[in-house]
Amino acid sequence: MTVKERERQSTAAAATRRAGPGREALFAVGGAVLAAAILAIFGLTLPANSYLLFSGFLLFLFTTQSLAWNLVGGYGGQTSFGHATFYGIGAYTTALLQENAGLHPVLALLAGALGAAVFSVIWGYPLFRLRGFYFAIATIGIAEATRLVALSPLRELTGGASGFRMSTAGAGGRTSQYMTALALVLATFLTSYWVRNSKLGLGLFALNMDPEAAETLGVDTTRLKAISLALSAFIVGLTGGIYARAFLYINPNDVFAFSVSIAMVLMSVIGGVGTLIGPILGAVIYVVIQDQLGAAQITFRGQTFQFRDVQLGLYGLLLALIILFEPAGLVGLFQRVAGRFRRRGGTQAVAEQQALLRNETGDE
Amino acid sequence: MDLGNILPVTVGAILLAGLYATMSYGLGLIYGVMRIVNLSHAGIMMLAAYTTLMLYRSFGIEPYLAPVIVMPLFFVIGMGFQRLIVRRITGAAPIVSLLLLFSVWLIIQNAAYLIWSGNTQSILRPYTTRSFRIEALDLTIGWMRLGVFLAGVVTLIILQFFLTRTYLGKAIRATTQDRDSAKLVGIDVDRISMVAFGIGIALSALAGALFSMILPFNPDFGRVLMLKSFAVIVLGGLTSFVGIAVGALVLALAEEWAVGVFGMQTALKDLVSFSALVLVLILLPNGLPSLLGRMPVWRTKPARPTTAPTGGKAA
Amino acid sequence: MALLEVQGVSRYFGGLRAVDHVDMVVGEGELVGLIGPNGAGKTTLFRVIAGVYPPSAGQVIFNGESVGGLHPNRVCHKGITSTHQVVRPFPALTVLENVLVGVQYGNVRSGDPRQRAREVLEFVGLAHRADVLARNLTLPDRKRLEVARALGTGPKLLLLDEVIAGLNQTEAARTMDLIRSIKRQGVTILMIEHNMRVIMGLSDRIVVLHHGEKIADAPPEQVSRDPKVIEAYLGESPVSA
Questions:
Q1: pLDDT higher for A75 or A300?
Q2: Are residues A273 and A352 in the same domain?
Q3: Which of B87, B178, B193, B258 has its CA 20 to 30 A from that of C57?
Q4: Residue of B93, B114, B282 lying closest to A127 (CB–CB)
Q5: What does the domain layout of chain B look like in residue ranges?
Q6: Strand, coil or helix: what is B314?
Q7: A231 and A363 inside one domain
Q8: Residue of higher predicted confidence among A112 and B312
C-alpha cells in the first residue's frame, strides 16, 4: 500500500480524533446524555399515538445500527455487507424464545443479541483472514446464504416466506418502544466513544491503517477484528429483537435482506466512516429522507412512482459523491467548511498583526 | 440420489457453464488489470438485458443480433466511465472502489426502475423456446441454451487469441501480472486499464444480452448471478480465462448435480454457489489452479520451490 | 549466551532462494550488523525472524524457544520487534498514539501506558512532536518514530532495517547516538544498513549475506578485509553458483 493510499483510507478515522482528551470526553459524554435527556422529555410530552414517537423509534434503531456497523466497518476498516445476519438472528431468536419458550422479553432480547454475537464469531473468525474486497464479498455470500437457510430449511422455525407472527402480549406502547430505542442508542454511542478511546480502538485504527505494521507491534489483528465484530453483532442483534417486539411480525426476506446490510454501510459511509459522529449524521439523513420523502410520489415519463422504490438510487448517488469528493463523509465536509472559516480567521489575524507591526516599526 | 438423471443433468450443467463463464470473463478481466472488483456487474448485465429488449421493441432488431450493437456500445460506455470516474480512485484502498462501483449499481438499478418500471420483462421469440431432442440419449436441449453456450465458448476462444496474439492483449496480460513492471517496460498502463475496463464492461453486457433471451428480468436482475460470477472467478484463480471457464464448469456441475442427482431442494440451489464463494475464498484463496499446482501469475505467497534456482540472482 | 539462533534458515519465493540456509547467532547485548549487496536477502531474513514470513526450512530459536513460523504478533510478545525498511507510521494517529500501539500491545505491558509512551518519545527525542499527526512528520522524524514504536513494545531484540539510510550527516549521527544508547539499555540489536561507515562504527560483529547465503561473520575490521566480501560488493567475478 502506498502512503497516499493509506492516508486516504485513514483520513476518516482521524477526522474526529483531535481535541484534548479531557474536553472531548466532557463534550461527547455530557452532550450525549444531555441530548438523550432532552429527547426523552420530548418523547414523554408526545401523545402515545404520535407518529413522531414512531419516527423517533426508527431513527434511534437506525442510528444504533449505523454506530454499531462503524465499530467494525469504520474503526477496524472491515467492510461488512453481512450485518443483516445479526439483525435477522437477533429478531428471530428474540421472537421465538419469547413466543415459543415463554422467556421473559428482556432475557429473550439479550439471548437474541448473544445469538447474533456467537454467529458473528462463527463466520468472522475464518473470514478475517481475508483482506479488502475478499472479506466484503465473502460477507455478501454469508448474508445471502443465511437468508436462504432461514427461508427454506428452517421454514418450520421461521415461517419461511410467509413470516412469523407474534402475539401482542409482549409489545409495549409506542412511548416505551421509543424509550427503549433511545436508551439503546445512547448506550451504543457511549460504547462507540469508549471503544474509540480505548486500547481496543487504538488497535483497530492501527490494523485498519496498516495491518502488517500493527502485527509486528504485537496487535493480534484477527482477535481484535473478531471482538469488534462480536460487539457490533451484539448491538445489531438487539435492534433486531426490538424491531420484532415492536412490529410483532418478522419475515426472513425482511430481516435478512441485503438492503438491511446496505443501509448500515450507506449510513456509516455517507455520514463519515470511522468517525464518532458520522454514523449518527448518516442515520439522521437516511431516516429523514425516508420519512419525509417516503410517501412522496415521483412522476417520470407519465408514470408515477413511490419515492421509497427509488430511494436507494439517491443514496447510491450520495455514496458516489462522498467517495469521490469527501472520503471522510459529511463529518469531513463539515470539518472542511469549518476549517476554511477558521483558517480565514487565522490569516486575518496574521494580517492584522502584520499591519500592526508595520505601523509600529515603520512608516516614517 | 438419482443416477438415472446424471446425463441430462450433466449436459444441462455444461450448457449452463457456458453462460456462467461468459458472465464472469468481464469481472475477471477488470480484476486482473485494475485489481478492482466490479460490483456494478449486476447492473451492467441488467442494463444490457433492457437494451436488448429496447433494440427489439423499438427497432425490431432480433435479440440474437443484439450483442453486435450492445457490446460496442457498452465498450464505449465502460471506457468513458473508467476515464471519468474509476480512474480517480486507482490506487485507493480496495474498499473505496468497491463502494464506488456498488453505488453505481444502486444508481443504475433505480434509474432502470424509473425508466422501465419494476415489472418483470422477458423476450419471447419463436426461437427462444424451441428445442431439439436426441432420442438415443433421451435428451431435450433448448436451442437458445445451446446458442448461449456456444457464444460463451466462442468468446473464450476469441479472448484467448486476443490476449496471446495481439499487442493490446499482451499488454493487458503484462499489466495483469505486474502493473509496475508493465509501466517500466513502457506500457501505457493508464490506457490499458481504460481499454480493459471497456472490454470487461462489454463482456458483462454480452452476458446480460444473452441472459435476456433465456431468463425473465427486472431492474433487480443480476444480484445472485453476480455472486455466482464472484464464485466462478475465485474458483478460477481470478486472473486466468481458462481458469474461469473451468471454475464455471465446476460451479454449474456442483449446482446441477446437487439438485438433479443428489436431490437438494431447488430453492436451495443458490446456496451451492454462495457456500462455494465463501469456502473457496477461505480454503483455496488461489482457486482451483492452485490444486493443480499451477500458480496464478499474481500470486504473492510462494509455494514450495519446484525447481532449483539458476544462478540464484536475487533481484 | 546466544539470544537468537538462526539455524539453517531458508526462504524461497517460487523458485527463488531469497535466503539460503543461513546460520547465525546473536548474543545477548550484542549489536550485530547485517550487510550485503542489494537483493542479498537481508530484509527477507529480517521478515522471517519477525514472523512476517514463515521459514521455508530451518529454525529460528529465540531465548531457547523456537519462534520460526509464529505470527508476527506472537513473535513480538516473545520480545522481537522490527522496524520497516519503508517507514510506515500509522498516518492518522498522533506520534504518541503510534508509540502507544506498541506499548499497549507489545511485549512489556506494565505501568501507565501513556507515561511509558512519553518516556520512549523523550528517549528518541520526539517528545516535542507527541501530538502531531504522524503523516505530518519529516522523514528523519518518521524514521525516529519507527524506532520509538518498536521500542515501545519493550523488545529484547530489536531489528533495525535501514533506519539511517536517507538521512543527512547530522541526522545520521544523531540516530547513531540513539542506537548506541538503545544498546546501553541492554537491548540486543540486529541492524541492516548500507552505509559502511555507519555499520563499521556501530557493530560488534558483522554478518554478510550474498545471494541469500552467509559469506562472512566476523568483527568489522576483519570483514572489511575479507576478499569474499570485497568480491561480493564489487560483484565482478564469475559466480560459481
A1: A75
A2: no
A3: B178
A4: B282
A5: 3-222
A6: coil
A7: no
A8: A112
Cell, residue B292: 493443480
Mark whether A287 and A347 lie in a shared domain.
Answer: no
The pTM is what?
A: 0.86
Tell whether A197 is covered by a domain.
yes
Domain count, chain A: 2
CB contact under 8 A, A7 and C92: yes
Residues in C closer than 8 angstroms to A13, CB to CB, are: 92
Q: How far apart are CA A157 and CA A164, in angstroms?
A: 8
Q: Do C101 and A202 touch (CB under 8 A)?
A: yes
Q: Which residue has the higher pLDDT, B4 or C116?
A: C116
CB B40, CB B105: distance < 8 Å: yes
Residues A142 and A234 in one domain: yes
Whether the CB of B95 is below 8 Å from some CB of chain A: the reply is yes
Q: What is the DSSP string of A159-193?
A: -GGG-EE--GGG---HHHHHHHHHHHHHHHHHHHH
Could you say which of A278, A293, A308 is where a domain stops?
A293
Instruction: Report yes or no on A10 lying in a domain.
Output: no
Q: Answer yes or no: are the C-beta atoms of B233 and B24 closer than 8 Å.
A: yes
* Candidate from B303, B306, B309 with C-beta closest to C17: B309
- Domain containing A353 equals 336-364
A165 and A262 belong to one structural domain: yes
Q: How confident is the model at residue A60 (pLDDT cuts 50, 70, 90)?
A: very high
Last residue of a domain, one of A293, A325, A347: A293
- pLDDT by residue (tens digit) across A160-203? 788 888 876 656 788 888 999 999 999 999 999 999 989 999 99
Please spell the DSSP secondary structure of A314-361, one letter per residue.
Answer: HHHHHHHHHHHH-TTHHHHHHHHHHHHHHHHHHHHHHHHHHHHHHHHH
A181, amino acid identity: A
ipTM value, please give it.
0.89
How far apart are the C-alpha atoms of A59 and A177, rounded to whole Å? 12
Choose the weakest-confidence range: B86-95, B189-198, C67-76: B86-95
**Is residue A153 a part of any domain in this protein?**
yes
> What are the structural domains of chain C?
1-79+156-241 (3.40.50.300), 85-155 (no CATH)
Structural domain contains residue A360: yes
Amino acid type, A78: Q
> Residue B133 has what pLDDT?
77
Q: How is residue A44 written as a grid cell?
A: 414523554
